[in-house]
Amino acid sequence: MPGVARQHRSLQVGFLTATKAWGGTEAHTLAVARALASRGHSVVILQLGHDAYTTRGASDLGAGVSAVGVNLPGPARGLPSRYWRQLLQSHRVDMVVVPKGSFRVRYRGLDLAMLTSRRPRISIEHATPPDPPVRTSRRHLAGLLPGLGLWHLRFRAGVALHRAAFGTVIAVADAIKQRMVEDYGYTGDAVTVIHNGIDVSRFHDDPEARAATRQLWGIPAAAFVFGTMARLVPEKRLDRLLHAFRGIAADSEPWLVVVGSGPEAGALHALAAELGLGERCVWAGESRAAWSAYPALDCFVSSSDVEGLPYALLEAMACERIPVATDAGGVSEVVIDKVTGRLTGQDPAALESAMREVMAYPREARAAIGRRAREQVVEHHDQLVQIAAVATLIEQVSDAGGAA
């Protein structure tokens, strides 16, 4: 049965987390931590230079899960292996979990610490790794000597070190595994795909929440509302969404709601004002009751350059909101174009065109696509099943005594 595990020795599981704002990766980490705690393990979330989990409060963390702020003595990327060994020892961690797309935040010292430690470890990749750089090297001394491309050798050596340090990886989308195998030298057996899952009983269409949330936002009941829920960070490309929305708002009267927080908030607010969107754009801030926000939308928009398999996208689809999404990472694994939503290119004009198309759908057509979107999530992305699978693999890696 899903969620029922055989007996394992009690672990002290340490999650090494780096983040700029609360988002899907953080929600996934907390769900896995709770699942492990429910199986009798102790979990400590080590917050590397942030307090995203502490601010949620003990009641949100749940029994058996603690969050500890770590004041780093310098940039994490430059810290020696000795620092990481001491950090893990001080918290008595005997199983290490590193979430958050580690190819984008590789720490050489941490990789060395893992290689020289007997602690079992696993990484969870939430974002598609970047395209590896193409080797280019100029010739020297008027072309007499070939360039050695030492920078490229250093890059490949860094990847090899990371691959050796974390030999077992969970990827939340097939697209992530494909990139790791084809471009980063992983074997297929080293990467296990466990898709993200959400609480499908909590996220569903809710007419009462729709009316109440629209009233809270000051949006008319009959208005067409585009919306997104995301960390306000560059890779989410909310600037692209604002530009696309400007074209639509120029000759119709839709609304745009942005739910989330992050370091790009000021710049995005300024851009919205510059584009003349002030009266039609609602900045709702971070929500701890997302299930009440999605029903107030008519169309959910994901405009990212980089993704894994976004929690917000799954949640919106479970609420029967039609998604319009740029084709990034594993998005196409859940958004089937013109069946469960609209999949589009990353050009603002293409995004605008898809948004206009959805806005023009008859109400019955939108409802039918919304139902198919929910069916897709319920069938393939139930949190009870997906998170249990992650917790089980972590236990199996620990039982194997290393990076299995």
Query: Mind telling me the CATH class of the largest domain?
Result: Alpha Beta
Helix content bin: 25-40%
- Largest sheet, order of strands side by side? 3-2-1-4-5-6-7
CATH architecture grouping of the largest domain: 3-Layer(aba) Sandwich
Domain tally: 2
The number of helical segments is 14
Could you walk me through the main structural features you see in this protein, from its secondary elements to its overall organization?
By secondary structure, the protein is an alpha/beta fold. The radius of gyration is 22 Å and the shape is globular. It is built from 14 helices and 13 strands. It folds into two domains: 12-134 and 151-197 and 383-400, Rossmann fold; 207-380, Rossmann fold, CATH 3.40.50.
